[in-house]
Design a protein that fits this description.
3 copies of one chain form a homotrimer.
Chain A: H1 5-12, E1 17-19, H2 26-31, H3 38-42, H4 47-55, H5 74-83, H6 92-104, H7 116-128, H8 134-140, E2 143-147, E3 150-151, H9 157-164, E4 171-172, E5 175-176, H10 178-181, H11 188-199, H12 206-222, E6 227-232, H13 243-251, H14 257-278, E7 281-286, E8 288-289, H15 294-300, E9 308-309, H16 314-325, E10 333-337, H17 341-351, E11 357-359, H18 369-383, H19 401-422, H20 427-445
Parallel strand pairs in A: 1-2, 2-4, 3-5, 6-7, 7-10, 10-11
Antiparallel strand pairs in A: 8-9
EC number (chains A, B, C): 5.3.1.12
Pathway (chains A, B, C): Carbohydrate metabolism; pentose and glucuronate interconversion
Family (chains A, B, C): Belongs to the metallo-dependent hydrolases superfamily. Uronate isomerase family.
């Protein structure tokens, strides 16, 4: 039966936005100050944008990135971006930014080198308006809940301020503890000291360390968190029957790289076990090798677009963790991959078996029309729809949130319409699944219904 | 030239079913007893079905699986399945089971929690009828030949009984010797003892061991077998110039894991060399890590849906074997992968060169509409059609055999119609290739024409 | 907006052919002798063709391959090929050869066992004509530039002869130095001796070795080369702070395999650094395991269709090289992969960041309609179009060059029309991108505009 994708899309187009994972700054909503200017809104924070410009020879300093970019004229930054607008043909960045300009901001002019200043001025004028402040936009976007991602030691003052304000927006933190779990993390020893100070626990013994982590999780949960998040390069988990010894070596700074990795692998399992206790959904983002461009890291700091995906072995890497907790009813662990070859080979078979597992939506380089199509093509036949986790926008570009959910919803509609055409199921099923994929799975898997 | 997939499908829809690889129980056809009940027919033996239910929190014991499931009420099992029917949206299981219910069994009612009992009763009543006994169904399905998969020590009494009966159905065994080849196999030492007893060969020397294997192969061939089968996790082959020494260590139980793997790698080559001698087609299924859920294995035994695919290196893994026998005219080795990234990268280039190699059809998680489309997309341009091996249903769910061949034939027609539309070839070619893929390749590659 | 692929194709169909990488023999154009016969033109040099025939049991000697094939009757070779024409259904070889027969040679008859002799005679008669000599065909094909691939020690006499002739065709060499860089290369020590003789440099010290390589690069550039090329099995690069020691071990023949690989990994970086100096574009073809069929290599020599792709790790393998030169403006390094799983996972993210990187077109087994579609599907969303390198025909089958560019242009048009239909961009953009992909990117990335 032929079903029109546009009709399925219409059924989910205006549903609320559920954003259970992303990187917005909670200060925006705590302070509700105006966004500074079009460049700081659309160009400078968007690593999709500046990595493409850099790949074609544009200097990051001229784009206002990092310390070398301080003092760059935002209008010039925006011009440089507009001048290279052609580079984005065929990329999701182009779709998102066109959505932002034309639909979110209502600008009719099309972006080009010629229109750069005009559009800059139009956006700048809009940002002066009260109805373009963070909270007003949040409300206008129909955001039901927005999760930020926050280090384990974050005092969550912005989240507290939002909660205590008279504004009704739901902005919740996510507990990201890698900086106090992974001995190879920058500043790990200082972070342990901070953890000790913050919690008052005695970190001299492994039990005290676990207790401190439990306290931080409880603190995050009390501020609304429903999930944790881990970013690992290679997925490796390992249950140490006697972790105290290795913990002491780690604390003494005498653990070698192999031991550090074993310790972190053990701690991932401890975190999963704490999730069994406290009900926080566990997210694992694996397969990104961070900051591969050393010169850029030295000059501009981390996160300058040089993180690169590598191949991942989920089956063997996650085995020890799953054999500790994977059969636990109610536990939710969401797996995100940048290695698409693992979708059909590993993640769909694993999520189609282990009760605890769900497959996260296409992440990072793959949250694009073709990327989403490949995702459905590869996971659904083995994992079905109910072992998926809905959508994440995963963005630090606040204005692009409606654009990203819209792209997802269109791709969902496209996929489901094709399924109907192939005879997999009928229109009623497709409409139900569309709502599931647009909002309900995310609400459920992240425990966001309240 | 636009060609209609439906027309190509019509040309192959009613061709006989050639099933050269699967896991039906030969006792069904030897004894021709009625199938016990709808749950034991459709739910309990189908790991696709129960793994999906388990992934969403359904207890395997309640599904009648393994020892803990003994005594489960089949009607309750069926209800549990029907209640979760939505989970199968988008999966091939749903297509197969709908085909079984509506076309094979002629039930009009659609499955749901509400219709569970009605449908259960309808199926149960049908199973009472003589025309729904195994042999009658086999005949009605138009099965030309059905191969089972049988351990090396199997006495093949059921196959013998079928051959001596007055029923004309062709049910042949397949020689699966891993349990007497792989020192890491459960019960390997006992199996060697059994092999010695069964053949009367002296297994004290490697030559006697080889001779015993030759005898078992001949015994299987005498019972109609045309093929062997191996299931390996990582493909590794290695020619030992002096296998006696390692054989003695293996027999003495003193070989370590590395030596055990080397021994098995050598034995795969010995098996290929025996295939050169006796003409049995060799099947290699690689890349499945078995029983990854240890708690389930302890409670429910093996094969509870926790086998997981892993990445495979065919080129280096199979090199030593191919350099012994790969250029042999007439030898047939069929490779099956769960790592789809190897189709275009390794298997199609290899099968497009080595005379002995054929690429098996999409296996296990990938014998689905999108899986089959990806398979053709990735193998045909390099390997053509004549280096493929046709279709396997590979099922232990007897009733689903027509459904699985039908799904394959529809997917074949879809693929060939697209090729015509793209201008790759014309309708005459497409119709010829359709018959090749539906039946002729399987007959040829498995040596089934008689 | 629906845009017709045929219209986009029409806009690029007759553009000149830019062929920046391939394996034609420059002697053809230096001498301008007639091609010997249809078999030597279409069958014997085409490893796509003879590997497929071999995979189905055809003897390579009967196909006129290698020393054992000397003296094979070309008419018989052509018959054998025509007899097996069905094997090529669904392969790009069939598309290319049909294009050659029907469009390039103007033969109306369709190839089959029955028409073999007729077609053979028609081709043979055409080859007698002056307008079917190499230079005339080169001109008729509209080839703007054709790059050959030449060993580091090649005296380039044919290229010099072409340049000094009154014929205006541009046939340029490409510097392929692996035979003097990789200690594991056949004849490496002899090649070093040849390099010393040819350049007069003192290879007793590492500096002299580098100087000799610089001289050879300059010699190639003086003969028109704009690029270098490397073929590596596993990509591995490594900067040795003190290469002299290892160089001395390599020269003394005492380096082990691991050291040889480290040395070659260092030399790849030296080559990249020389590209920074002299502006030659660097090509890296990685992931092909050469001559995996040892019996064929012994009997027929190398390159008999037994090279097999293996998995590649670009991110870690290329890291040391990129951290030396990857941020250099103006440097061009083109990466070619046979491991398609790296397109979305590694190559598109890398090319979308590093200024020096471009992604080469689908290579070898993947320069086919479905292969090209997968390529665009996987690279464009992350790398855009401007980080691609246009098209290579990469062929030693001269007559197939127009066919291969035509197949690419049709696939480009197909892809761009789909992008328009999906709403990614409009027809004007599509037409601009079509020209970019057909000719302009290749001209630019290989520095061919003059």
């Amino acid at each position: 039966m032929a079903v029109d994708a546009a009709e399925i899309y219409d059924g989910i187009r205006t549903l609320p936005i559920v954003s259970p994972h992303g990187h917005c700054d909670p200060a925006w909503f705590a302070d509700d100050r105006k966004f500074a200017n079009p460049a700081e809104l659309l160009v400078i924070p968007d690593h999709y944008v500046f990595r493409m410009l850099y790949s074609q020879g544009v200097d990051l300093a001229q784009l206002g990135i990092g310390a070398p970019g301080e003092g760059a004229d935002p209008r010039e930054v925006f011009r440089l971006f507009a001048h290279h607008w052609d580079l984005f043909l065929g990329t999701p960045s182009r779709i998102w930014i066109e959505h932002v300009l034309h639909r979110t901001l209502g600008i009719e002019e099309r972006l080009s080198a010629q229109t750069s200043d005009t559009i800059y001025d139009l956006i700048d004028a809009l940002l002066m308006q009260p109805d373009h402040r963070p909270r007003a936009l949040f409300d206008r976007f129909g955001i039901e809940v927005l999760a930020t991602t926050d280090g384990a030691l974050d005092p969550l003052t912005h989240h507290a301020a939002i909660a205590q304000s008279d504004w009704g927006g739901r902005v919740i933190p996510t507990f990201r503890p890698d900086s106090v779990l992974d001995p190879l993390h920058d500043g790990f020893m200082d972070n342990l000291a901070g953890l000790e100070t913050q919690t008052g626990c005695d970190l001299g013994q492994f039990e005290g360390y676990l207790e401190a982590l439990r306290q931080r999780r409880a603190f995050f949960a009390a501020h609304g968190a429903t999930a944790t998040d881990h970013a690992v390069e290679q997925i490796r988990t390992e249950w140490l029957p006697e972790p105290e010894t290795l913990y002491q070596r780690v604390r003494a700074g005498t653990a070698d790289a192999q031991e550090a990795s074993a310790f972190y692998g053990h701690m991932l399992i401890e975190m999963a076990q704490m999730s069994v206790e406290d009900g926080l959904t566990m997210q694992i983002h694996a397969g990104s090798r961070r900051n591969t461009n050393m010169a850029l890291k030295r000059q501009f700091g981390p996160d300058t677009g040089a993180d690169m995906p590598i191949a991942v072995d989920w089956v063997r890497g996650l085995g020890p963790l799953l054999n500790r907790v994977g059969n636990t009813p109610g536990l939710r662990i969401i797996l995100f991959t940048l290695d698409e070859s693992t979708y059909a080979r590993e993640l769909a078979p694993m999520a189609g078996h282990w009760p605890a597992l769900r497959i996260g939506p296409p992440w990072w380089f793959h949250d694009s029309p073709a990327g989403i199509a490949r995702y459905f093509d590869r996971v659904v036949e083995t994992a079905g729809y109910h072992n998926l986790a809905g959508f994440n926008d995963d963005t630090r570009a606040f204005l692009s949130i409606p654009a990203r959910h819209d792209l997802w919803r269109r791709a969902v509609a496209e996929h489901l319409a094709q399924q109907c055409t192939r005879g997999a199921f009928g229109r009623d099923d497709a409409e139900r699944l569309a709502r599931l994929l647009a909002v309900d799975l995310a609400r459920d898997v992240y425990g966001l219904a309240r």
